[in-house]
Specification:
Layout: H1 3-17, H2 20-29, E1 32-40, H3 44-55, E2 60-64, H4 71-78, E3 84-90, H5 106-109, H6 124-128, H7 134-149, E4 155-160, H8 169-182, E5 185-186, E6 193-196, H9 205-214, E7 222-226, H10 233-236, H11 253-264, H12 267-274, E8 279-280, H13 283-290
Parallel strand pairs: 1-2, 1-7, 1-8, 2-3, 3-4, 4-5, 6-7
Helix pairs in contact: 1-12, 3-4, 7-8
């Protein structure tokens, strides 16, 4: 039996046999944590990692890049795991050197959003300097949501890849209109306390997250942004054009994302959940609890 299988079996079995009254008491006191796995569908390595986390039975939310060529594989994987709440990772950037993607509507449909080759621009700065057309932004984001809705998955919420879709007040208004048009929630609009281990050294990600969760607030949901991937030659070739610190020989993109996968699969995190010291929630639950009419734009819109 593999370590992953043992972890998944233990996780699900422990939840099933726990006394309901004990779990109820623990959860009333436990801080709520929402894991959001981003960039799903980016490539095969990311999709493989997604399935490893899904197999544990752990409730979490995942956002798919429906503009990427591997989104269809991600869709087929997620159809097997209804406990995962699915969102659309709205993309207006393509940040990897040598591996690029463009709009669903194509270069001809949204010419102000792409470079000469028809790909999204690599950075927020480049996008904002490109004299983009807001009407084209709205059409492209709508097309990404419509592709998601046509996939057969239940789509619950949206968020912004690299924060691009909410980088200015005008872009944020477009994103909010798209969410309202399709009846979707927006990540960070439910009063969440945002946290990420993106910039933490690979060897310290698990311990850093556990330390943060140990002090998680009880008056708001802690949203943890996560990026997972299998360590493969495909991932080793990935080079981030915006973050030189993630391209070093000993701690490149592949090392960072594989370390976040191991964090999600760690026995320490499993024990934290199993013991009732944190309670995992998803955006499906957030929407059911608050309702779309209860969403509020974050007070600090400079930080997702």
């Amino acid at each position: 039996m593999t370590r992953l299988h043992r972890f998944g079996t233990t996780f699900v079995f422990a939840l099933a046999i726990a006394a309901p009254q004990i779990l109820h008491a623990q959860r009333n006191a436990a801080p709520e944590v929402l894991f959001r796995l981003d960039d799903i569908g980016m490539n095969h390595s990311v999709n493989l990692a997604l399935e490893q986390v899904a197999k544990t039975g752990m409730p979490f939310s995942a956002t798919i890049l429906f503009a990427c060529p591997w989104y269809q594989e991600a869709v087929e994987i997620l159809k097997k795991y209804p406990h995962v709440t699915v969102g659309v990772h709205l993309a207006l950037n393509s940040e990897w050197r040598g591996y690029r993607w463009g709009p669903v509507l194509g270069k001809g449909g949204v010419p102000s959003l792409v470079d000469s080759a028809g790909y999204f621009l690599p950075s927020t700065r480049a996008f904002l300097a490109n004299k983009y057309d807001l009407g084209e932004v709205e059409r492209e984001l709508s097309a990404q949501v419509e592709r998601a809705l046509q996939s057969g998955l239940k789509i619950t919420f949206i968020d912004a890849h690299m924060g691009m879709a909410w980088a200015t007040p005008q872009l944020r208004e477009v994103m909010e209109r798209v969410a309202k048009k399709y009846g979707l929630g927006i990540s960070t609009y439910f009063g969440e306390s945002y946290y990420t281990i993106w910039g933490v050294a690979p060897g310290s990600k698990t311990s850093t997250l556990l330390e943060h969760l140990a002090k998680a607030p009880r008056d708001s949901v802690t949203l943890v942004e996560v990026h997972v991937a299998e360590r493969t030659p495909e991932m080793d070739a990935i080079y981030d054009m915006n973050a030189p610190e993630q391209n070093t020989a000993d701690a490149g993109v592949a090392a960072h994302r594989n370390a976040e996968l191991h964090t999600m699969l760690s026995p320490e995190l499993a024990q934290l959940v199993r013991s009732g010291r944190i309670r995992l929630v998803t955006y499906q639950q957030m929407v059911q609890r608050t309702g779309l009419s209860g969403m509020k734009r974050p007070a600090n819109t400079d930080n997702p």
